[in-house]
Write a structure and sequence with these properties.
Blueprint: H1 2-10, E1 14-20, E2 23-30, E3 37-45, H2 51-61, E4 68-72, E5 78-84, H3 93-101, E6 112-118, E7 128-135, H4 136-148, E8 152-157, H5 159-165, E9 176-183, E10 186-193, E11 196-204, H6 248-271, E12 277-281, H7 285-298, E13 302-305, E14 312-313, H8 319-322, H9 326-332
Parallel strand pairs: 1-4, 3-14, 4-8, 9-12, 12-13
Antiparallel strand pairs: 1-2, 2-3, 5-7, 6-7, 9-10, 10-11
Helix pairs in contact: 5-9
Length: about 350
């Protein structure tokens, strides 16, 4: 009956989820023959006093019981490190890494969930590994919520990798591609070398411009902070005083400056190659204007991430809103087949 189990699993409902404090973001996919359909995507506030009850109610309201659940850890629940790859067999890698990083983390080993994934082999600097250090209680919380809400837990991932699930149409061998994504406190620059994640830099206090359309005015939350990234070093500092209260021109100037500084750093310190293309989320006309500015002022080739490359959705949903939920959309899209870019 393996063929039946695979068929049922392939066509199961999927939901990408992220819980930051009491703020729940989700993207709920329905199975379709060719292109998955987004049935619902939103950000809602759960009850602090009865979080489990309100989470179960939210899942029931969108009829997502029994769906495959793909959780994205909130940034305050984990750290992403880069370490030299231990010279041990793969079967001993996890334990070797645990002892290698025990003095670099601020949580006892017994209170941490530690996993690792490959650092791109063709980047300079020798053999390395990315290491994710998550708090055990944060991971257990997601496991418990899934069980209590009749969700089929499939994966618990980090934002950097969930965003990469949406980048496949642009990724190709020999190229460095950067995705500019939103965070609760600003933006992040996520770089990919070939088909692999290679670098992340958080830019707190710098924001993507957005249209003044009421349909795009979903309230922001500020319950979380960006995760510390150790691809770079302490000499790389950021100006963080520019926020959404500033004028568009001021914010855009700061945005262009910080993007250029980050990409220059990535080229000089990480990849030894320039980023060949920048991808922006689709927030409407102002995103298109920013793309033109990046091209004109920095000489960058820029594309806009159109979610219709991956999904269908009903007329009641708007792409500009969906683009604010990229991590959970990418989480729900994990392991779904899509072609890579071609030369």
């Amino acid at each position: 009956m393996d063929w039946l189990n695979k068929l049922l699993n392939k066509n199961n409902k999927r939901i990408g989820l992220q819980l930051e404090g009491e703020t729940l973001s989700y993207c709920y996919l329905l199975p379709q023959t060719n292109t998955p359909e987004i049935s619902a995507a939103s950000q809602i506030q759960l009850s602090e006093d009865s979080l489990t009850v309100s989470f179960k109610a939210a899942i029931a309201e969108i009829n997502a019981k029994g769906a495959d659940a793909y959780w994205i850890l909130p940034s305050e629940s984990y750290r992403l490190l880069t370490v030299e790859r231990p010279s041990v067999p793969d079967s001993e890698m996890t334990e070797a890494i645990r002892w290698q990083i025990k003095d670099q983390i601020d949580v006892p080993l017994e209170e941490a969930v530690i996993t690792h994934f490959e650092y791109p082999d063709n980047l300079p600097g020798g053999k390395r590994q990315f290491v994710v250090v998550a708090r055990l209680d944060a991971v257990q919380r997601l496991i418990d919520l899934s069980l209590q809400s009749d969700l089929n837990l499939k994966a618990i991932d980090i934002q950097e990798l969930s965003l990469g699930n949406l980048m496949t149409p642009w990724l190709q061998q020999g190229q460095n591609i950067a995705l500019i994504a939103e965070t609760p406190t600003g933006i992040s620059v996520n770089c990919f070398n070939g088909n692999e994640f290679s670098f992340n830099r958080a830019l707190p206090g710098v924001f993507l411009p957005r249209s003044n359309d009421p349909v795009n005015s979903e309230p922001e939350t500020s319950d979380s902070t960006d995760n510390e990234n150790t691809n770079g070093d302490e000499e790389f500092s950021l100006d963080v005083d520019i926020g959404q209260h500033e004028t568009d021109d001021t914010n855009n100037d700061q945005l262009l400056l910080e993007i250029q500084r980050t990409l220059d750093y990535y080229e000089s310190q990480i990849s030894r190659q320039a980023v060949t293309k920048v991808i922006l989320p689709d927030f409407g006309q102002k995103t298109e204007s920013l793309a033109e500015e990046l091209n004109a002022n920095l000489g960058l080739q820029v594309d806009i991430l159109k979610l219709n490359k991956h999904f269908n959705w009903s007329d009641s949903l708007v792409e500009h809103q969906l683009s604010r939920h990229l991590p959970v959309c990418g989480g729900a899209y994990r392991d779904m087949e899509v072609a890579h870019a071609t030369d």
